[in-house]
Amino acid sequence: MAKERETTKKESSGKTLQAMKRKREPYLYLLPTIVLMLLLLIIPICMVVRYSFFDNVIVKKDPVFAGLKNYAMILSDKTFFVAVKNTLFFVGASVIVHMFLGMLFAILLNTRYIGINLKAFFRVIYVLPWMFTASVIAILWKMMMNPNGIINYLLQITNLTSSHIEWLGSRNFALFSVTLINIWAGYPFYMVSILAGLQGIPTDLYEASAIDGANAVQQFIRITIPQLKPIIISLFMLDFVWTIQQFALIWMTTGGGPINATEMISTFIYKRGFSKYQYSQASASAVILLVVCSVIAVFYVRHQRERD
Where are the transmembrane segments (predicted)? Predict the structure, then answer.
């Protein structure tokens, strides 16, 4: 009897050890990613938040705790509010037109009136802007928007303008121009996502609605939009966060100029930190941007959970 009890105890302890190993295994697989996220994401964010509460860090050897002084200076800076206004226009126009163009091209590529080979050709053409890096896009559009570039040439031969327009060098056109470039570069993401959503909608819904007498517009409003709603909301939120953080395209086309005409929050933070060496104010600006993006991220996660 004693031997049997010992064997049963050994078996139960062996089972518990196996169970513990199974529970630990997923965390061991995740450990490299967790360490990388800790080193490259969590710790830098905590450092930036800490810097925002001190008098000019990095430049000074012994920075003094300044409380909310840096935030007050940023929120009373006229250039910051110019950057916020430009960013709101840039982000709002980009997100709305991205959705419109993405939906339009996705519907065109999903229609049954175009052949398979022609669809494949147009898919390659439409998705090309998404393949280019920010530096390639910036160089390409700077050449086209040059006063002697192709855009001014086409406008002149069609008698739409008689002068050479400084698209990226004029305060009147610079913000519109960089927004146009960003729209061109970003719409393929919407197009590909919406096209995947359209192809996942059952054709039975359209056939049943056609029998009931619904036309194409009614089918689009009553079937297509509700079926694509989860994808559209996710795209809006992701695009908002990505566009509000856009830096490379702005910096390589206008640098935030001329005279702050295209100054964005991202370029404002960069200039404060690496041109004026006011790292604490740059950190405070970055924390404000982080809070805005975090609010959108919370809504995105909640929407994903509801969708699941």
Answer: 27-53, 88-109, 121-141, 173-198, 282-301
- The C-alpha angle 189, 193, 203, rounded to 5 degrees, equals 150
* pLDDT tens, residue by residue, 25-58: 777 888 888 888 888 888 988 999 999 999 888 8
SS3 262: coil
Instruction: Name the β-bridge partners of 65.
Output: 54
Contacting residues for 71 by C-beta, under 8 A, at least 6 apart: 52, 284, 287, 288
Angle between helices 78-110 and 116-131 (to 10 degrees): 160
CB 99 within 8 A of CB 235: yes
The residues, any chain, with a CB within 8 Å of residue 171's CB and separated by 6 or more, are: 258, 259, 261
DSSP 159-171: TS-SS---TTT-T
CA-CA-CA-CA dihedral for 258, 84, 94, 289, to nearest 10: 120
In whole numbers, what is the pLDDT of the chain averaged over residues? Answer: 86
Q: How many residues does the chain have?
A: 308
Q: Are the CB atoms for 293 and 91 separated by under 8 Å?
A: no
Q: What distance in Å separates the CA atoms of residue 79 and residue 276, rounded to the nearest whole number?
A: 14
- For residues 260 and 281, what is the distance between their CA atoms, to the nearest angstrom? 18
Reduced to 3 states (helix: H, G, I; strand: E, B; else coil), residue 118 is: helix
* Token representation of residue 136: 């390639």
pTM: 0.85
**CATH class label, 69-307:** mainly alpha
Question: Rounded distance, CA 63 to CA 56, Å?
Answer: 6
